[in-house]
Design brief:
The protein is an alpha/beta fold. It has helices at about 35-40, 45-65, 85-105, 110-120, 170-180, 185-195, 220-230, 240-270, 285-290, 310-325, and strands spanning about 5-10, 15-20, 25-30, 75-80, 105-110, 135-140, 145-155, 155-160, 275-280, 300. It is globular. Bound molecules: 5'-O-[(R)-(carboxyoxy)(hydroxy)phosphoryl]adenosine and zinc ion.
Length: about 350
């Protein structure tokens, strides 16, 4: 039995969680910074790291208290140390190192994007272990990432495709801003899409060639911008009606899902995979879940509580790493880009 404290501060969420045996989430505390960044329409790194410093200790205390454990009960301290904003990462990494040093517990550095895939395992105590068969294809689709992985085990995860420009969640957020729908855009566009008629507008699907496993969403975002505002040099379009907004939401969502489905299918053939794992904020999307419900191999999604950034997924994946002896030294670095977990 292992009790692990996870710490997450890669971007704009300060989170801490206690997880038992990599699956049972005893606490999952998240302090969001939406309000701080909303007026800038995006995350301001300096504001994010300052807010992490202010939030981290109360969030840690709350996570331990909700789980009814003290530091001495823990078997390890885990932290998402890559990829992310360097100032944000440093706050979590420094806190984790300090706790590990002060308590003498092992430190486990975790890749945040790999942890998004592991989030499908969290909770589900009543149902028993998930029947995921490896090799699997992993898709992490969030505000910061759109990436495909060949997952041969939880410690053998290789990048096989990624976005060349915007992440899909970022496209949702920008399209929502174009339509005046606020931030974050994913949940509101997802809800509107069910009421709109996608056949009224046709947006481009960027497939990047017949074999590519990479993504590009900036053309789609620009197509929505031109459709809504008109093209420079031509008379401005009148503000869209409510019906037009819902139709654009439906057509945009359909284009995103078409691309994601096509790329997953390609990846499944390339990897010869027996299952698909989807994680990250956009994995909460109802349209995507519906579209993948009849896929050729079983598809696994996280519980909605674990789709967006959280520390339970960090503590969960750390359980596997700890069991494999993959602990980290106290000179663990904050790394801004993703890379393989080499012990
Ligand atoms: O995983 P996450 O918290 O952050 C990153 O690591 O980037 O994901 C946040 C992203 C935002 O872009 C948000 O708009 C998107 O996930 N999102 C959704 C939905 N819920 C959240 N996108 C589409 N449909 C949703 N239901
Ligand atoms: Zn994330």
């Amino acid at each position: 039995m292992a009790l692990i404290l996870g710490i997450e501060s890669t971007c704009d969420e300060t989170a801490a969680s206690v997880v038992r045996d990599g699956r049972e989430v005893l606490s999952n505390v998240i302090a969001t910074q939406y309000d701080l960044h909303a007026k800038y329409r995006g995350v301001v790194p300096e504001i994010a790291s300052r807010a992490h410093i202010e939030n981290l200790l109360p969030v840690l205390r709350e996570a331990l208290s909700q789980a009814s454990v003290s530091l001495s009960d823990l078997d390890a301290i885990a932290v998402a140390h890559r990829p992310g904003l360097v100032g944000s990462l440093l706050v979590g990494v420094t806190a984790a190192k300090t706790l590990a040093w002060a308590t003498g517990k092992p430190l486990v550095g975790v890749d945040h994007v790999h942890a998004h895939l592991y989030s499908v395992i969290l909770g589900r105590i009543a149902q028993g272990p998930l029947p995921i068969e490896f090799p699997a294809v992993g898709l992490v689709c969030s505000g910061g990432h759109t990436a495909l992985y060949a997952v041969r085990s939880w410690t053998d995860i290789n990048l096989i495709g990624s976005t060349l420009d915007d992440a899909v969640g970022e496209a949702y957020d920008k399209v929502a801003a174009i339509l005046g729908l606020g931030y974050p855009g994913g949940p509101v566009l997802d809800a509107l899409a069910t009421r709109g008629d996608a056949s009224r507008v046709r947006f481009p699907r960027s497939m990047l060639g017949r074999e590519s496993l990479d993504f590009s969403f900036s053309g789609l975002k620009t197509a929505v911008l031109y459709h809504v505002r008109g093209v420079a040099g031509k008379p401005q379009r009148p503000a869209p009606t409510e019906q037009e907004i819902t139709d654009v939401a439906a057509a945009f969502q359909e284009a995103c899902i078409d691309v994601l489905l096509k790329k997953i299918s390609r990846a499944v053939s390339v990897v010869g995979s027996r299952s698909v794992i989807v994680g990250g904020g956009v994995s909460a999307n109802n349209g995507l879940r519906r579209a993948l419900s009849t896929f050729t191999v079983p598809v696994f999604f996280p519980d909605r509580a674990f789709c967006t950034d959280n520390a339970a997924m960090t503590a969960g994946l750390a359980h596997v790493l700890l069991a494999g002896g993959r602990t980290s030294a106290l000179d663990l670095d904050a790394i801004t880009h993703s890379q393989f977990l080499d012990a």
